[in-house]
Amino acid sequence: MKIGLRILLGYFLIVGVAAWLLMNVFVEQVRPGVRFTMEDMAADTALLLAGVVAADVRDNRYGDGMLARLQAATQRPLDAAIGGVAKQSVGYRIYITDVRGIVRFDSAGKAVGQDYSRWNDVYLTLRGKYGARMTREIPNVEASTVMYVAAPVRDGERIIGSLTVAKPISGVKAFIERSQRKVMEWAALLLGLSLLIGVAMTWRIMGTLRKLMVFVADVQAGRKAVMPKLGSSEISTLGHALEAMRAKLEGKDYVETLMHTLTHELKSPIAAIQATAELLEEDMPPEQRRQFLATIQAQNARQRDLIDKLLALVRVEKQQRIDEAEPVDIASLLQDVAGDFRARLEARELQLEVAVDDTPHVRGDVLLLRQALGNLLDNAIGFAPRGSTVRMAARIQGGRLEVSVADAGPGIPAYAEARLFERFYSLPRPDGAKSTGLGLPFVHEVAALHGGSAGVVNGEGGGCHAALLLPLHTERINNT
User: Fold this and answer.
1) pTM of the shown model
2) For residues 315 and 108, what is the distance between their CA atoms, to the nearest angstrom?
3) Other C-beta atoms lying within 10 Å of the C-beta of residue 455
């Protein structure tokens, strides 16, 4: 099933179910609502009539006076159209009982003399309560139901009888059916409009998706493809993301920049090796020869270091996630990094202080973290004045674990602050040595893989403060 059809069916299903539930509840409430209204009106009518005929009932005048006029009024024909429904007769039947429950007056003339004392309307009313009942004139036939609502006939405060107003439910059936029919018509119209809106929305979404699918097909086939105009929707964002992924996958800009910079960086050591090798062809004192050989070895080591770090950087840049994150003991990790650089620290007469708070473990790749912290410590050693102290510390900062390396060197010049994490960008060290410029980019990529970040700033008291910020072990790491 195509995505457009799935969207349309899902939308229509949601709207349809919601409309059906709403209309079903509404329709089901129409019938009892009308009945409650009818009962309310019947109760008012019974109460008013009971007050009007109270004197006739007290004087036992059931065949003349007000009751005679009331009976005549109920038999008069009508010619009315109410809500589109024709009405030709009075729907009320009125009967009155004495205090014993014996019917003494019946506007329909069919129950006079009968004992109604056990019917709820009469029984409850004669006892000062609200009396009403619903009775089917024909058993098991819902349409024959008649509503009876009674009110007490009083002589002062004394109850001398009951007056019941009866109204067949069939009299309002036409109104109920008409209301239900209108509700269903509007429900059908609502569903129809919802379907049209759904079709329009799906058509528009599918039109945008089709453009994107054509673009993806062209890219997949290796054809030249221009990103289509997709408006400002989320699909447009997806399209631009695919375009960016395409550029990265093809790697044209990446490879071009990488090869250009790598060639530039390798020119110096290659030229130095070649010039030194040419000089070695001549006769020279052994001491000078040893110096030239040392130069060749140093330049070769520089090339090897450059290539190794570049391969490590490319590998971590291409890595999208940490496949198997494991708990990392930061205290042990810092001690291992310190051990890796013990010889360099001693050679430059530097002291290394390691301070670790009682921090929880983090999760990640131990080897990558060790390499990243090694790069930060290597930079600190290169810029720290001889005989000074380098400090490594780990502490919880702002809900994350901050692992920092600080030195007492010259700090970061203002012109270099924005370029520290650029590939191959490096600052000259106090001893004149030049790094590969790949260490901090590597640290940045490792931090991103762990869901964290890296930063380098000037220290408050001078020197440089480099930090690796990592999420704590309870946080999710890079969607793994």
Assistant:
1) 0.44
2) 100
3) 16
